[in-house]
Structure formats: structure tokens, C-alpha cells
Amino acid sequence: MSSTITSSLKKWQKKKLCSLFNNANFSLLFKASVHGYHSTTFHQKCNYQGPTVIVAYNKSGYVFGAFISKNYGQTNQNVVDDKAFLFSFNDKEIKEDPLRVFSGNPQYAFTDSGPNFSSLVFLYNNTANVYSNPASPYNFDPQRMHGNDLQLTECEVYRVEDCGGLLEKPWRNVQWNSETKEALLSTISGWKPSVSSVKQARILLVGPVGAGKSSFFNSVNSVFKGYVSIQANTGTAGTSLTTRFRTYYIKPGSDVSHVPFTMCDSMGLEEGLNSGLDVEDFANILKGHIQDKYQFNPSMPIQPDSPHFRKSPGLKDKIHCVVYVIDTSKVKLLSDKMFEKFAVFRKKTNQLGVPQLVLLTQVDEACPLVAEDLKNVYQSHYINRMVQEVSTRLGVSLSAVIPVKNYYQELEIDPQTDILLLNAVVQILRAAEGYFDDFYNPEEKSE
């Protein structure tokens, strides 16, 4: 499923690729180890996607491929493309510039019936092999291009999108200093629900498989602990790793005496019927009926006679804010079916009067300028475009869409990442405040 496939590019390889495209962004469309080395699937995933780059890997440590600025379209025609080129780099020459070879005759840049560049043909005979014949239109040294190793370990196709550089002014103002972090921590630890019977806001994280829900909890937990911590199960499995309803508490640390929220993690959203989180289960979570560690059954929602069904939940058991989690680098890959599923969940949440926000994770993966410096997050044209697209597609206001970066490979916490994460928590608590306002009674005011 498109929402769960991940890139095989290592950090240094992605940097090399970026150097060929002046800070472009890469959206993964096709991965042969997942979709198969077959031209039919290749066309289903890659036709009419605009500029794309094929990235092939072999055991000899070569990463090589081809860029086209026109569409694949299965017309069996030769396509004129003066921007098309072949490229290569390898792990023995990390410091060298990548090899780039343009067509000697742009009239014959490629044949759009497949990844066919005459001199190099990928997915050759629907196998993990490349046909190589360094002659017109692309002349190259085969040793330099692929080390004479034509057996592939992986083949991927990415859409190449212009990041659009940086805006003149940030579209949200954030002070990136230690005072900001202290102020955010102080705001969070001083926050109390305006209803005395509730001590902590309950936040429900919802989103597609692999979007970073569990990682978001782990990351927020890490900020409070002062080091990178893993409590919730995370990974890149094809189906939801979270199969139980979980309530996660954060222990107060040295900087914060009180953590006024808990986070609830649920099964991932999946496109198909009887797969992923069921809307009835979702409604029961919002109403406070489902208890911690309930094992989801996608083909049948929870029944009132289940031992995990709380028959008369109080206000403290209900969900006070729903947070949809979406991977920024996969926004373009989310299917219409997935957006339809979001619409069903959003409607149910509205009916129950629960505030909703959207977190866009992996901002550094989505935009190389943000990967370079996280402080660029609110100046990045690309992140701004993704925020606007999610706002439109989900029908939420722009102010309800918050970009964040989770901790996923770091070993130590980082002040900028902390500020983005804490800022998201403050926005979530403000949204939850709106929920409690409906129950506010001045005679019952919290101490």
C-alpha cells in the first residue's frame, strides 16, 4: 500500500541525488521489491506523473538511473526531452560528483512504453535486470555507470517536485531559542482543564499506517525525559503495528512538575473494508467506552459485553481532542479512498463535538531545505503548499495544520525539534480547551 512504502536511499545517497536537481523534493511512486519488477505495475504507478527519476541499486554499491522531464504514457513513441539524462554514483567514490550523461540526440531521449532509454533499459523482460548497450543516444563507460553489474537489488521511481525555495518571510513566527522552549514547557505544565473533574486532556492520534502516530508520542515523551526514548511500538510494517488501543502517560521530569495530557494510540487507517480502524470503534473511543489494551478486531467492532467496554464513561474517559497524523512526504500519495475515510472520521468527530487538528510529520524528509535547517520549516514553499493542500483536502482551517519532526534515528534530543514538538502540544491543549469550555461551570471551577 502506497502509504507504507519507504525509500531505500541512504542519507548520503539522497544528498547526491539532490545535488542533480537543485534542492528538488522526491515523492516515492514505485518500489520494485513491493510492487514487483513488472512494466504493467510500473505504468500503473508512474504514468502521467510529470518529471520522474528512476533509481536502481546493485550489489556492487552503484546507484544509477535516469531522469525524464516528460510523462511516461505507453504510446510506444520516442519522446523528445532535452532535459533527460542518465546518472550514477557509488559507495567507493562518495566524494566524487555523480556521473551525468545527456542524450546525444534529444529526439530519442526515451521510449515511453517503459523505463527504456535504448542504451539502458530498466525492468528488462520484467525481471530485476538492466539491459545495457552504451551507444547512441547515451554514450557512457559501463564500468563507471553500473560497475558492469546488471542484476538489481532494488529499483524505485520518484516524482521530482520543485521545492520552490524559501519564502521571503516565514508564514508563522517561531523564536528558535532556549527561552522559547522553557516558555512552552511552562505553558504546558501550568495548563489545567477548566473542568475540575478532569485532571488530564485525552488526545487521540489517528492516521494512516506508518504516518508517525506512535513516533509522535515517543518524540514528545523524549522532550520531557531529556533523551530519545522509545515506549510505543514503531516501525514500517505494511499493516498497522498498533493493534491494541493504548493509553500512554508521560512522567513529569526535572523541567515539568505536571503533564496535563495523555495520548491514546489506535490502529492505523487503511483503505479497504474490514481493515484498519473501524469507524464504530473510533466513535466508541471518542465516547470513552474503550479501555486501555483493548485488542482491535477490524472485521467486528467492540461489543457492549466485552470486558474492555466501559459502560458509563465519565468526562475524564472521553477524548478531548482528535489529532490526525499524516506523513508530509506522502501527502501526494494518499489515495482518494484514504481521504474519503478521513471524511467519515471527521464527520463522526464533528457530530460528537470533539476538536480536531492535523499533524504533518517528517517535514525534514519532505523538503531538503528543512532537512538542512529545521528553522526553515515555516519558510519552505513546499511545506506551505502541503499544509494548504491538507487543509483543503481534509476541510480543516490552515491554523489547524501543524508541521512537526519526530525523533526516529537520532540518539540525542535537539532544541529545534523540541520547539516544534512542544508548539504542537500547546496547540493541541488549546484545542482541547475548546472542548472543556462547553462543559464549563463557574461554580465548579478547577482549583
SSE layout and pairings?
Layout: H1 11-20, E1 24-31, H2 32-35, H3 39-46, E2 52-58, E3 62-68, E4 78-79, E5 85-90, E6 99-102, E7 110-111, E8 120-121, E9 131-132, H4 142-146, E10 152-162, H5 178-190, E11 201-206, H6 213-225, E12 246-248, E13 261-265, H7 279-286, E14 321-327, H8 336-351, E15 356-361, H9 363-366, H10 368-372, H11 381-394, E16 401-403, H12 415-437
Parallel strand pairs: 11-13, 11-14, 14-15, 15-16
Antiparallel strand pairs: 1-10, 2-3, 2-10, 3-5, 4-7, 5-6, 8-9, 12-13
Helix pairs in contact: 5-12, 6-12, 7-8
Summarize the structure.
By secondary structure, this protein is an alpha/beta fold. The protein has helices spanning 11-20, 32-35, 39-46, 142-146, 178-190, 213-225, 279-286, 336-351, 363-366, 368-372, 381-394, 415-437; strands spanning 24-31, 52-58, 62-68, 78-79, 85-90, 99-102, 110-111, 120-121, 131-132, 152-162, 201-206, 246-248, 261-265, 321-327, 356-361, 401-403. It contains twelve helices and 16 strands.
How would you portray this structure in words?
The structure is a single chain. By secondary structure, this protein is of the alpha/beta class. It has twelve helices and 16 strands. The strands form four sheets. Strands 1-10-2-3-5-6 form a six-stranded antiparallel beta sheet, sandwiched between helices. Helix 8 links the parallel strand 14 (321-327) and strand 15 (356-361). Helix 6 crosses helix 12 and helix 7 runs parallel beside helix 8. The longest helix has 23 residues, at 415-437.
